[in-house]
Amino acid sequence: MAILKIKNLQKHFGGVMAIDGLSVSFEKARVTSVIGPNGSGKTTLVNVLSAMLNADSGIITISNGPDLRKCAPFTAHFYGITRTFQEVRLFEQMSVLDNVLIVLTERNVLSAIFEKHGAYHLQQAKTALETTGLWSKRIELATNLSYGQRKLLEVARVLALTASGKSNIILFDEPFAGLFPQMVKTVADIIKELRMAGKTIVLIEHNMDLIRELSDHLIVMDAGKLLAQGEPEEVLSRKDVIEAYLGE
Amino acid sequence: MEYAYQLAILFCIYSMLGISLNLVVGYTGLLSSTHAAFYGIGAYATAITLTAYGVNFFAGVALGIVISAGIALAIGIVLNRFSGDYYAIVSLGFNVIAYSVMLNWHELTRGPLGIPGISRPSVYRLDFSSNFMFLVLSVLFLVAVWLISRFIAMSSFGRVLKGIREDEAATQAFGYNTLYFKLAIFVVSASMAAVAGSVFASYVTFIDPSTFTVMESVFILAIIIFGGLSSLKGSVIGALILVLLPEALRFAGFPASIAAQMRQVIYGATLIILMLFRPQGIFGEFKL
Question: Where are chain B's structural domains?
Answer without folding.
Answer: 2-212
